[in-house]
Design goal:
Layout: E1 9-13, E2 17-24, E3 38-44, H1 46-56, E4 60-68, H2 71-83, E5 90-93, E6 99-106, E7 111-116, H3 119-122, H4 125-130, H5 132-135, E8 140-144, H6 149-161, E9 165-169, H7 178-181, E10 186-187, H8 191-197, H9 208-217, E11 222-226, E12 232-236, E13 239-243, H10 256-269, H11 274-288, H12 301-309
Parallel strand pairs: 1-4, 1-8, 2-6, 4-5, 8-9, 9-10, 10-11
Antiparallel strand pairs: 2-3, 6-7, 11-12, 12-13
Bound molecules: adenosine-5'-diphosphate (ADP).
Length: 310
């Protein structure tokens, strides 16, 4: 990954949400009120986060998504401008609101999230078609599941026909049509999402290797399952490889997956083989846990390279 290489071009199709984040001593039980220790409002949404993650790692990121015609949207365009994310193909929808998410972070760094999708739910195939010229030259398409099947299917079809690597982060998890799955080169669930995609209980007593094998049987090429502090599991045609995590001081695990996926797309676009790309992504995921909130934790290129080089 020499710095003289051209920047990889990555299109990210997905969500933008404003995140309202509170840190609490512990999660409330149903009906209970727990007083928070701190509160912050900030930009989020897996699509936008991953696009910013790509840009910080030196990729040329184009974000395709939808926002409302409100002040949250103004903040979003200013953010993408500051972060060097091309937002030419983000549309404002006056019929609805910009997506909003509530994030609760416990003092031991775990998180719980609820989302009112608003404009994210209105993203459709026409919006993807309007951006289709963008997909012609990209090295990779990166999608998540905070938007509907229709835009995902349109994007995956267009990018895959153009020869791009298709990376799908199935978060939050749902079962997907075959027309999507058979065009996915890299599926990147966490352990819960992997089980949910198969219609299993997240606590199902199944080993990760057999869950990944069942996901591959649905038509995806390679499964890269993230396993929190345990790293990631890569399952390809050629076999299974467990990739270790990096030991860091965890502050807030929110955004580990976003950072991991951005880094995986960048590393694959630069031509790294999947094992080394996953190691790069594990370093980016680990670094994201060392800061509170998502965007402040998305690492730059030098920081990831330094950790990988250790
Ligand atoms: P998600 O955030 O989507 O639930 P994970 O928790 O599996 O996904 O985290 C994604 C990646 O981030 C992991 O594969 C791992 O490489 C890294 N990561 C997450 N939590 C930790 C941790 N506590 N220590 C080190 N690395 C971590």
């Amino acid at each position: 990954m020499a710095s003289t290489e051209p920047s990889p071009r990555i299109a990210v199709v997905g969500s933008y949400n404003v995140g309202l984040t509170m840190v609490v001593p512990r999660f409330p039980t149903p009906g209970e009120t727990v007083l928070g220790d701190s509160f912050a409002e900030g930009p989020g949404g897996k699509g936008s986060n991953q696009a910013i993650g790509v840009a910080r790692l030196g990729g040329e990121a184009t974000f395709v998504g939808q926002v409302g015609d409100d002040s949250y949207a103004d903040d979003a365009f200013a953010l993408w401008d500051r972060e060097g994310v091309d937002a030419t193909h983000v549309t404002r929808n006056p019929e609805t609101h910009t997506g909003v998410g509530f994030v609760i972070v416990s003092e031991d760094g775990e998180n719980e999230i609820t989302v009112a999708p608003g404009a994210n739910d209105a993203l459709d195939a026409a919006a993807i078609d309007a951006a289709s010229s963008e997909f012609a030259g990209v090295d990779a398409l990166l999608c998540q599941l905070e938007v509907g099947d229709e835009p995902i299917e349109a994007a995956v079809r267009t990018a895959s026909a153009a020869g791009a690597d298709v990376v799908l982060n199935p978060a939050p998890a749902r079962e997907l049509p075959a027309a999507v799955l058979e065009r996915v080169d890299y599926l990147t669930p966490n352990q819960n999402e992997a089980r949910l995609m198969l219609g299993l209980d997240p606590d199902a007593d199944r080993d990760d290797e057999s869950v990944a094998a069942d996901l591959r049987a649905l038509g995806v090429d390679t499964v890269v399952m993230t396993r929190g502090a345990a790293g990631a599991l890569v399952v390809t045609d050629g076999g299974i490889e467990a990739v270790d995590s990096f030991d860091v001081d965890v502050v807030d695990t929110t955004g580990a997956g976003d950072s991991f996926n951005a880094a995986l797309a960048v590393a694959l676009s630069e031509g790294l083989p999947i094992g080394r790309a996953t190691r790069f992504a594990c370093a980016a995921g680990a670094l994201a846990t060392t800061a509170a909130e998502v965007i402040p934790g998305l690492p730059d290129r030098e920081t990831v390279a330094a950790l990988v080089g250790e």
